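Most newcomers find our protein records easier to grasp once they have seen one. Sequence and backbone structure share a record, each on its own labelled line. To make this concrete, we reproduce a full record directly below:
***
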Amino acid sequence: MRIYMIIITILLSSCASNKSRYILTADKAPRTALTLTYIEDAQPRYEPSSQAGNRNYSVLGQNYEVLTAPYGFSETGMASWYGEKFHGYKTANGEIYDMYSMSAAHKSLPLPSYVEVENTNNGKKTIVRVNDRGPFYKGRVIDLSYAAALKLDILRTGTALVKVTLFTVDKPSGNTECQRACLNRYFVQLASLSDRSKAMRAAAIFSKRFDLPSDINQSGDVYRIRLGPFYNYVQTQNVVITVRQHKIKEAFIVTEPIADKRSKK
């Protein structure tokens, strides 16, 4: 009941003032802690290489080569994380960095890629989608989003020794299957509830408030309340901006292949 009342209160409140994040000189976590109980790992699937971010490049006088055949890739090293300072900026492949998504930056893996990251200090694991470049500090092998770092319990220490293992997803055979795999639909996840009836009422309220279609994605006893689907990534990002102006700061984008029919209303 408490979560549901928070949702209603948020929707009835006035818009928050739009303070710029771009003036930050040092990185930091968001003021409101994120609850990851119901946030799933990134789901590995075939994606074509991004048009941006997949050429060899140079940073701080050092040259980096993007791997063209990374099958079986695995490495161990230090992981760090990045948060509010970079939130809302473009990533190396042209997407917008969302610190609440399960994403990461890597110096040489193709963009996008999917990797499993294991915190060797506590055994916790998660799967992230690599869509950015970095970290450019000696000894560090991957830069995690705020959400991923929280899931691996790295926020307090700032860094941790991790094992990074690449998921290899083969390209679908046949032109039709490939085209379907390359097409995405997008949702903006707002909240999660364990009561179906309350989730349905909340979805209806959100839909009316933002004048957008709503969706409920069920996984076990968890009902994820989302806006969408959308078929344009830029439009989806604009929806996230609007939603966060209404104090729903933890809203984030979920990407699904159009062939995936798991969504339930």
Summary: Residues 57-167 form a domain with the Barwin-like endoglucanases fold (CATH 2.40.40.10). The two ends are 21 Å apart (CA to CA).
